[in-house]
Amino acid sequence: MLYDPTERRIRSFVTRAGRLSTGQARALEAYGPHYLIEYRKAQFDFHAPFGRTAPLILEIGFGMGDTTAHIAKAMPDKDFVGVEVHTPGVGSLLKLAGEQDIQNLRLIQHDAVEVLNNMIADGSLAGVHIFFPDPWHKARHNKRRLIQPPFVQLLCQKLAQGGYIHCATDWEDYAVQMLEVLGNEPALQNTAEGYAEKPSYRPLTKFENRGLKLGHGVWDLVFTKK
């Protein structure tokens, strides 16, 4: 993680500018006002943008958003908030959401830790999705990985009783670390004996399919709050 002197902590991501495609740029302009929630250092009523009270699922680091859009469409009875720092990914998911009229989805372009600390009420989340976070695969960079005990404790604080954390990774040593960190959190209970079967709601990505055909592993972990 990278040290941030303003928040006195280390960050789990590197901000990359990236190139916006024409479609992504148009989506930011056309759909941003409807789907984007502005970050603020104050607790936010996440039911208000949806106009209803429904189970709220937070996705951290949604990448280009294909999986997020798929899951939101498949679960219309739940509301989803995706948090991502990279503008091309935000533009990509805005394009999907706007063109497919996905109304149970909103986005925040900001650091997830600050969103959790400042905007999300304790005990308010029904679930958290963290799919294929940066593995920081070099040993000297492992401390930058997102799934660490203090972060998991923060997630537990924001989860309602019975709420779940679903992580997935294609790096085996990160999967081992995830299992150890989540398994050592006293507020959590594993839903499986070790790694979980991939829940049906999480689609296989093109990258994941390609990896599986080459014999690469993918590990899902699903833990619930006691």
UniProtKB/TrEMBL annotation:
The UniProt entry, under InterPro entries, shows:
SAM-dependent_MTases_sf (IPR029063), tRNA_(Gua-N-7)_MeTrfase_Trmb (IPR003358), tRNA_methyltr_TrmB_bact (IPR055361)
Q: What is the lineage of its organism?
A: Bacteria, Pseudomonadati, Pseudomonadota, Betaproteobacteria, Burkholderiales
Q: NCBIfam families from the xrefs?
A: tRNA (guanosine(46)-N7)-methyltransferase TrmB (TIGR00091)
Which pathway does this polypeptide act in? tRNA modification; N(7)-methylguanine-tRNA biosynthesis
Residue sites binding substrate per the record: 138, 170, 205-208
One MF annotation (Gene Ontology) recorded for this entry: tRNA (guanine(46)-N7)-methyltransferase activity
Assigned protein family: Belongs to the class I-like SAM-binding methyltransferase superfamily. TrmB family.
* Sequence segments annotated as region (Interaction with RNA): 140-145
Q: What is its EC number?
A: 2.1.1.33
Q: What is catalyzed by this enzyme? A: guanosine(46) in tRNA + S-adenosyl-L-methionine = N(7)-methylguanosine(46) in tRNA + S-adenosyl-L-homocysteine
Q: Where does S-adenosyl-L-methionine bind?
A: 59, 84, 111, 134
Q: What is this protein called?
A: tRNA (guanine-N(7)-)-methyltransferase
Gene Ontology cellular-component terms listed: tRNA methyltransferase complex
The record's keywords, sorted A to Z, are: Methyltransferase, S-adenosyl-L-methionine, Transferase, tRNA processing
Enzyme class comes to transferase
Coiled-coil annotated spans = none
Tell me yes or no: is Protease among this UniProt entry's keywords.
Answer: no
Pfam families, alphabetically?
Answer: Methyltransf_4 (PF02390)
General function of this protein: Catalyzes the formation of N(7)-methylguanine at position 46 (m7G46) in tRNA.
Superkingdom as given in the UniProt entry: Bacteria
